[in-house]
Design a protein that fits this description.
Number of strands of chain A: 4
Number of helices of chain A: 12
Number of helices of chain B: 20
CATH architecture of the largest domain in chain B: 3-Layer(bba) Sandwich
Number of domains of chain A: 2
Distance between the termini of chain B: 43 Å
Radius of gyration of chain A: 22 Å
Strand order of the largest sheet of chain B: 3-10-4-5-6
Strand order of the largest sheet of chain A: 3-2-4
Largest sheet of chain B: 5 strands, parallel
CATH superfamily of the largest domain in chain B: FAD/NAD(P)-binding domain
Structural class of chain B: alpha/beta
Largest interface: A-B, 41 and 50 residues
Largest sheet of chain A: 3 strands, parallel
Radius of gyration of chain B: 29 Å
Helix content of chain A: 40-55%
Structural class of chain A: mainly alpha
Shape of chain A: elongated
Shape of chain B: globular
CATH class of the largest domain in chain B: Alpha Beta
Number of strands of chain B: 40
Order of helices and strands of chain A: EHHHHHHHHEHHEHHE
CATH topology of the largest domain in chain B: FAD/NAD(P)-binding domain
Oligomer: heterodimer
Helix content of chain B: 25-40%
């Protein structure tokens, strides 16, 4: 059986791509595709679900909104922006993907990301793994203590917490304190050796923001605000986010 | 360093003041520097080179002396990739939104030459978005590369080049149209860099107060392509906009026409004539032959053992001097030949090199400059007819070169001094065709003060342009043509003859006579030159239900509809490209149809943004600055869908509109597009000039377009002297290009008409009237109707001035009483004897 043809032409329909163009700068150049394929040849998600950035944009351009909006591929994009970097027309495919994600009903979005976003909303640590302020303080101090005791040359190493007026406010992905605490140490050592004036915060310390990846605009904004406030409250000059 | 001492290393900058009446800016372009495109690795990976560097690698005077090898290890590559549009068609990384117009063709050329250069197999891949082989016969060249020479063309742009450190090879990942990721490893990658305007030209423009456009090309009007924003200053070549050699040469002549028009009163006042020494009579001398064998870089020297051929030439009878040169046609070699002629008292010269078609005249002038008669010269073509075709058999090619040289030497000993007839030049011009090209050519000549007869077969001037409305830039064609006609009518030097038909033609360069019929009236016009501007028209499609369904129209008809009714009521329009072009019947691209579709697509979208517009194409060829309009069309929402030649769209009528079926090249899925109107981008076909050519004997190609003297270097000259060509009679082109070529033709004609006298070729047929039996075979055989029987004197007469020197009469004469100068019987049989004497 031959696949049914895609029907085009006739009267102009309302299209998803036109709505996205209205809300992003320069319309994201979404109309300008030369179909050269540079995006797809450099995309880590090319081939997944038989899809790639060029096809994804093409579906949008042809007004195939139904297929576009239910494509799981939108969730496979890593938002790395390799596509827009080389695109001769500087087409903002990541923004198209983001807005497709945003069009999904919240409860229908991928469970992992949804769960992580919801968890981060639970308390002001913003930890997608649900790490509390107490857990966080304990792990940091415990690991720092161990380094001071066992590693030569780092007898004075500090991992400051809530140090008001520090130059740098450092975020940390929740994965490290929760599952791989030792992986925090190398960065501490660097900061120690260069003599950086830095601090962690007991609030807003988690570097990840799954609500952003979930295209949950209201909540990713909330999370950014909590983190920004934590930086401001400690009167730090520079916010270092390792994500 | 420089062996020829051509460079003065201690030269210093000097300032001089010149007082001039007009200025022509022809400062050209520079290649785009790709080093800032970090993902291509240029400057980091040694085997990634620019196309300019690759040209040097292929060149005999280049870094590897013409041997194709890669920079890293001087190994001969087995696989090379070309990446198109580096520094062109890119508004993200380099800001050059235009197409550079030349890169597709040079990449194809480089691939073909590279294949010839290597000793084994070479796999060449050209990664491209569109192949833009839009020039005259360029499509045929592309097809030859693709179908015959096996150059692969892949529709893909590369994301990143990565080097394989162990080998220096380069990995290229790309996605094919099926959406599959593929990786190929190349020994070399060539970046096809675009053209851009150098900083120094911007400074120059500023100093002169010349307007530049956003890409820093000179701002010009589509109807005045070489005129800058400042009166008296003209431009041509790439500074005017990206273009190839034929277009640059054409535009150069156009700029000369416009600049010359300002300087009519001063013409000839500061001209310096070349002084030619008196001719010495060598008729009674024993032949003293000098033989110069050419390496032609490595064109000949790479195959033929040139020193051996030279040595062999020295053993031949009457040869008193031999030498071989890297490029025999170069200026320093000419000087050397002159020295040797004098030093060794040479009275015959043989050059073994290329085709006499391109360089014979030049070598003959070298002889004249030493006081030798120009006809004491002979060439052996050891390149086109030898090294190029026997490149895989060097031994045999060397032997054949010896044979060819022996033949040339034998013939040169038989050559005689010949005298050329000097005639006066009639200062009137004939322009055939009263369209935009013909009118511009007539005006160009009229402004220079020459009397012009402008013939138009229809009852009004204007030609095909009368059917057109706007250019892609939005300029009003009808208003322009109206004004042009008024200018032509107002010019006292131009005599317009409408309803004209050429009924008879006679004469020769400088002195033609054409009989023109208008209705029952016939008149004879005397003129010194001819400009052909017979034009072209839109192809009438037999494809896609055209003529069966009123909903299928051509682009010209769509233009009429949009002009009359706008786009109201049009929900959906489908355009189909390459109708009547790029197919089995007509292999060539019609050049103008892509911009036509883009122009009308933009017009529809501007009239009614809700009309869906789909353009089904094979390659979009909006070359040069027209790329911006392609971008604009996409920006306005025009959808472009590529189809393959072997899977064209299908058009079916239905009660709800035309249904167009086509496969989407990206999704690889079938589309069914409902359209109110299907517009065919019908190609351009030449006007029917069969009758005209029957009378005037002009050469046309199989497509009916006239054949210029040299595709690249003489694009407005016909092979016959005093005859010029312009507009769409030469090949499909835009109005702005037709105007430039018309001005160019006027300029070329002016150089001819400015002379008071010209010399005719001495290569003409001579009748031995004493032995002639008046059988009239020559009269019947001459393709130009030159021999006549003089009933009064009872002899056959051949007029030197009108004889073309083709030799047909000499060869058919049953009593051999006709001899063709320079090709007398013994001058030909001497070659055959020499060939057979040598044995193979």
């Amino acid at each position: 059986m031959a696949e049914e043809a895609i029907k085009l032409g006739g009267k102009k329909k309302s299209m998803f791509i036109d709505k996205v163009k209205q809300i992003i700068p320069d319309g994201g150049n979404l109309n300008l595709c030369l179909t050269c394929g540079a995006c797809s040849s450099g995309c880590p998600a090319t081939g997944l679900e038989g899809m790639d950035p060029r096809k994804f944009l093409r579906m949008a351009a042809l007004g195939m909104d139904e297929e576009l909006l239910k494509s799981n591929w939108a969730w496979m994009c890593t938002m790395c922006q390799r596509c827009i970097y080389v695109c001769p027309m500087k087409i903002d495919i990541p923004q198209l993907v983001f807005n497709v994600r945003n069009s999904w009903p919240r409860e229908g979005r991928p469970k992992g990301i949804l769960g992580s976003c919801d968890m981060a909303l639970k308390n002001d640590t913003c930890s997608a793994m649900g790490a509390t302020e107490e857990d966080w303080r304990f792990v940091v101090e415990d690991v720092a203590e161990e380094v001071r005791e066992t590693q030569e040359g780092f007898e004075n190493l500090q991992a400051p917490m809530d140090k008001v007026g520090a130059e740098f406010f450092l975020n940390q992905n929740s994965r490290e304190p929760v599952t791989e605490p030792d992986e925090m140490v190398p960065l501490w050592k660097i900061l120690h050796l260069v003599g950086a004036d830095w601090t962690y915060g007991s609030k807003g310390w988690a570097a990840e923001n799954y609500c952003l990846f979930m295209a949950d605009n209201e909540n990713w904004k909330h999370i950014v605000e909590v983190k920004a406030k934590a930086v401001d409250d400690l009167k730090c000059k520079v916010w270092l986010n390792t994500e | 360093m420089c062996v020829a001492k051509a460079i003065c290393y201690d030269d210093v900058e000097r300032e001089s003041t010149l007082t001039v009446g007009s200025i022509i800016l022809a400062s050209g372009s520079q290649g785009y520097d790709p080093s800032k495109l970090d993902f291509l690795g240029y400057g980091k990976y040694p085997n990634v080179v620019t196309s300019e560097e690759f040209e040097r690698i292929l060149s005999a005077s280049g870094p590897y002396r013409g041997h194709l090898c890669r920079p890293l290890d001087r190994e001969e590559p087995k696989k090379i990739a070309w990446l198109q549009c580096v520094g062109s068609r890119d508004t993200n990384k380099c800001g050059n939104g235009y197409c550079s117009s030349v890169c597709c063709m040079y990449a194809i050329k480089e691939a073909m030459i590279a294949k010839e250069h290597v000793h084994g197999e070479l796999d060449c891949v050209v990664f491209n978005m569109d192949i833009r082989s839009f020039g005259k016969d360029y499509e045929k060249y592309y097809l030859r590369a693709k179908d015959k020479d096996g150059v692969r063309f892949v529709k893909a742009r590369i994301h990143t080049i990565t080097e394989i450190p162990e080998t220096g090879d380069l990995s290229v990942r790309f996605v094919n149209e099926a959406g599959e990721i593929l990786e190929e490893i190349f020994n070399m990658v060539v970046l096809s860099v675009g053209l851009q305007i150098p900083e120094s030209s911007k400074v120059l423009a500023k100093q002169l107060g010349i307007e530049l456009n956003k890409y820093n090309f000179v701002t010009t009007d589509p109807f005045a392509p070489v005129i800058t924003s400042r009166p008296g200053v003209y431009t041509c070549g790439v500074f005017q906009g990206p273009k190839d050699i034929p277009s640059s040469v054409t535009e150069a002549s156009a700029a000369a026409c416009m600049a010359g028009g300002d300087l009519v009163d001063a013409r000839g006042t500061e001209t310096k004539a070349i002084e030619i020494p008196d001719q010495q009579d060598v008729a009674e001398q024993t032949p003293r032959i000098g033989v110069f064998v050419c390496n032609c870089g490595i064109n000949i020297g790479g195959v033929v053992n040139v020193p051996k051929v030279t040595e062999y030439a020295g053993t031949l009878p009457n040869v008193v001097f031999t030498d071989h040169n890297l490029f025999t046609c170069s200026q320093d070699t000419q000087d050397k030949i002159k020295e040797m002629i004098i030093e060794h008292k040479l009275n015959r010269v043989v050059v073994a090199s290329c085709s006499p078609k391109t360089h014979e005249q030049m070598f003959m002038e070298t002889l004249e400059a030493c006081g030798l008669n120009r006809y004491l010269f002979e060439m052996a073509n050891i390149r086109n007819q030898n090294s190029w075709i026997h490149s895989k058999s060097p031994e045999l090619a060397t032997q054949k070169a010896k044979d060819l040289v022996r033949m040339a030497v034998a013939r040169s000993a038989t050559l005689k001094q010949l005298n050329e007839k000097v005639i006066s030049v009639n200062k009137q011009a004939l322009v055939i065709g009263g369209g935009i090209a013909g009118m511009n050519a007539a005006l160009g000549l009229g402004r220079q003060g020459f009397k012009v007869f402008l013939l138009e077969k229809e009852s009004e001037l204007g030609g095909f342009s009368l059917k057109l409305h706007h250019t892609i830039e939005g300029k009003d064609v009808k208003a322009y043509v109206k004004e042009l006609i008024e200018q032509v009518r107002a010019n006292a030097n131009i005599e317009v003859i409408i309803n004209a038909r050429i009924t008879d033609f006679a004469g020769y360069k400088g002195n033609f006579t054409t009989e023109v019929a208008t209705g029952d009236q016939k008149q004879k016009l005397d003129h010194g030159i001819i400009i052909i501007a017979t034009g072209a028209k839109e192809y009438i499609p037999i494809e896609y239900s055209y003529n069966e369904d009123p909903r299928v129209v051509t682009q010209v008809q769509l233009g009429d509809i949009l002009e009359e009714k706008g786009a109201a009521g049009l929900d959906s329009v489908v355009m189909i490209q390459c109708v009547g072009s790029r197919n089995k019947e007509n292999e060539n691209c019609s050049r103008i149809c892509c911009q036509n579709a883009v122009k009308n697509g933009i017009a529809i979208k501007k009239l009614n943004p809700d009309t869906n517009v789909y353009v089904l194409y094979r390659d979009i060829r909006t070359y040069g600055l027209m790329e911006d309009y392609y971008t604009e069309a996409r920006n306005l929402g025009v959808i472009f869908i590529r189809f393959e030649e072997d899977n064209p769209p299908q058009v079916e009528p239905s009660s709800e509109g035309m249904i167009v079926k086509v496969k989407d090249h990206i999704l690889q899925k079938n589309l069914e597009i409902r359209a109110d109107l299907v517009t065919l981008s019908a190609g351009m076909v030449a006007e029917d000039t069969t009758e005209l050519c029957g009378i005037m004997k002009f050469n046309r190609n199989p497509e009916g377009f006239f054949i210029e003297a040299h595709v690249k270097l003489r694009p407005v000259d016909m092979p016959g002297e005093g005859i010029f060509l312009c507009g769409t009679a030469h090949g499909p082109k835009l109005i702005t290009e037709a105007i430039a070529q018309a001005q160019a033709a006027a300029s070329r004609a002016t150089t001819f008409l400015s002379k008071s006298h010209i010399k005719l070729s001495a290569i003409t047929a001579q009748v031995d009237t004493e032995h002639c039996v008046k059988c009239l075979t020559c009269v019947r055989s001459c393709p130009f109707e030159v021999p006549v029987f003089n009933t009064e004197k009872q002899v056959i007469e051949i007029d030197d001035a009108i004889c073309h020197g083709c030799g047909v009469c000499a060869s058919v004469c049953p009593r051999q009483t006709i001899q063709l100068n320079f090709y007398e019987d013994n001058q030909i049989t001497s070659k055959i004897d020499a060939l057979l004497a040598g044995g193979m």
